[in-house]
Amino acid sequence: MKTIEVYVDGASKGNPGPSGIGVVICRDGEVIRNISSYIGGATNNIAEYTALIFGLQEGLLLKAESIKINSDSELLCHQLNKVYKVKNKNILGLYNQAMHLMSGFKQVSVRHIKRENNRGADKLANQAVKTALKKH
Fold it and tell me: Which pLDDT belongs to residue 84?
């Protein structure tokens, strides 16, 4: 089975404020893709979900059958694992989109990891914001 491991992170300067996403995609322990993108003004939680959606879309484009999602956002992980309910209306649409994309995989796991284990995605998310702010 084609399995990928995806690390996702969102960064927001001001919360809400200028935000970016970072996604690191690995296959067999090797990084095969890095995504760093500025998403404009958003909250940190919206940035986290947007990073997740980018990661899921990329996983489908790579034709992965199994996806392991890693995030340092306790909220995102607990909501996806149905420990917490989604109460925020701004997040509900992103949550529904993520759940829909996840249905395209044979296997999905969502794991909460420590911040220090998510440095790659964190760096990409912050880099997106810094680059965008330099241009303005």
Answer: 97
By residue range, what is the domain housing residue 74? 3-135
- 46-71 burial string, b = 16+ CB within 10 Å, else e? bbbbbbbbbbbebbeeeebeebbbbb
**How many domains does one find in the chain?**
1
With left for phi above 0 and alpha for psi between -120 and 50, is residue 82 left, alpha or beta? left
Radius of gyration of the CA atoms of the chain, in A = 14
User: Tell me, what CATH number does 50's domain have?
Assistant: 3.30.420.10
User: Which residues make beta-bridge pairs with 35?
Assistant: 23
User: Whole-angstrom Cα distance, residue 87 to residue 48?
Assistant: 16
CA torsion sign for 128, 27, 63, 80 is negative
pLDDT, tens digit, 9 for 90 and up, residues 16-25: 999 999 999 9
